[in-house]
Amino acid sequence: MSPLSDPSKSLLTRDNISAAPEHPHLHSGIIIATIYALLIAAGLIGNVTLIRTFCIVKSMRNVPNLFMSSLALGDVLLLVTCAPVDASKFLADEWLFGRIGCKLIPFIQLTSVGVSVFTLTALAADRYKAIVKPMDIQTSKASLKVCLRAASIWLLSMILAIPEVVFSDLHTFHIPETNETFKACAPYPHAGDLHPKIHSMASFLILYIIPLFIIAVYYIFIARSLIQSAINMPVEGNAHIRRQIESRMRLAKTVLVFVGLFAICWLPNHVIYLYRSYHYTEVDTSMAHFIASVCARILAFTNSCVNPFALYLFSKSFRKQFNKQLCCCCPSILLRSQNARRNNTRLSSLKSTQNHSVASFSLVNGNFKIQYMLMFGIQL
User: Fold this and answer.
1) Across 92-101, 322-331, 356-365, which has the greatest mean pLDDT?
2) Under DSSP, is residue 183 helix (H, G, I), strand (E, B) or coil?
3) Measured between alpha carbons, how far is 222 from 249 in angstroms, rounded to an integer?
4) What element of type H or E holds 378?
5) Which of 218, 254, 269, 297 is the most exposed place for a label (fewest CB within 10 A)?
6) Looking at residue 236, what is its pLDDT?
7) Residue 234's pLDDT band (boundaries 50, 70, 90)?
8) Regarding predicted confidence, which is higher, 205 or 60?
9) 132-141, 190-199, 255-264, range with the lowest pLDDT
10) Is the dihedral of CA 307, 308, 310, 316 positive or negative?
11) What does the pLDDT look like over 160-191, one tens digit per residue?
């Protein structure tokens, strides 16, 4: 998901030096903003196609994929609303989105991070039930129950994000070294350093440590169950049961990859936010801190892009349907490409039968490129 100051999404807009005029040159800001634009484009293509695939293809509407669709929706929300706001900080020295934006953007960020980590926890619980306690699985109205659980996750995430709306506000910060002041969006009252410490630590525990600990416990039980199943299964065991266990193992590994990506991508954000919160009265303007902050922000937003592509690598069935849905989204492009090939073939044939032509046209990479064939034998 996304930001850099606070460990959730609130980081982005409310980190203590969130809109500080610390950014180097404008061209550096343009380069960073371009990276954001690429992440947004890749994330939207991947996540929207994933959601479309799971919604349209009936055979893929199972419990894990419904959770993954909810996860992708949270990533889309983050990329559409929060990533552009974060990118704007590298192009402007002031907060550009007013007081309403200061309250709304951190709320969306924190909601999206909560949806991500709690959905991953729900996925781990689902894999635990499917592998360790398969007899407890109820197939009747399974999709409805998953949708209700996903809605509960969204509701819980929004409830946890309510303090962002209440306390986030515009504050003026001062840099003693340069005697500069700037206005930034902060998620807590400006006076004192108790609020930032509570906020950063609570975010770190609720949105990172505790969920990952629960997921780790689930996977310990899953690993133990799989080891026991491998030992107890006879050499000539039932082929159907063996395939079923292998399928569940593959899905469990995929969920574990998602969890690992989340943990890696979000840890730097949490660390930097904790550092800033426990040094709240100081504004670190060093180049090292700036580079670390930029890398942490980009890494966090990268997490909102990678899940569809990770699933693409791990699942053959999803890869097939993903390609099909992606191609369906751009039939006009395919049609133009086919017409281009046909036109190119016709032109090549015409050229071979009419060598005396003064000029000919050829199609290159879908664009018309004029080639003048001068009678003097000079080709431009």
Assistant:
1) 92-101
2) strand
3) 9
4) none
5) 254
6) 56
7) low
8) 205
9) 132-141
10) positive
11) 999 999 888 887 777 676 777 777 787 776 66
| Per-residue pLDDT at 18 | 40
On the 0-12 / 13-18 / 19+ scale of CB atoms within 10 A, 252 is buried
Does this model's pTM top 0.90? My answer is no
CB 365 within 8 A of CB 378: no
Which domains are delineated in the chain?
10-328 (1.20.1070.10), 332-372 (no CATH)
- Report how far residue 99's alpha carbon sits from residue 120's, in angstroms, rounded to the nearest whole number: 32
Give the orientation angle of helix 239-277 with respect to helix 210-232, to 10 degrees.
160
Between residues 114 and 229, which one has the greater pLDDT?
114
Q: What number of residues does the chain have? A: 380
* pLDDT score recorded for residue 79: 94
The answer to whether 199 touches 187, Cβ cutoff 8 Å, is yes
What values do phi and psi take at 220, rounded to 5? -65, -45
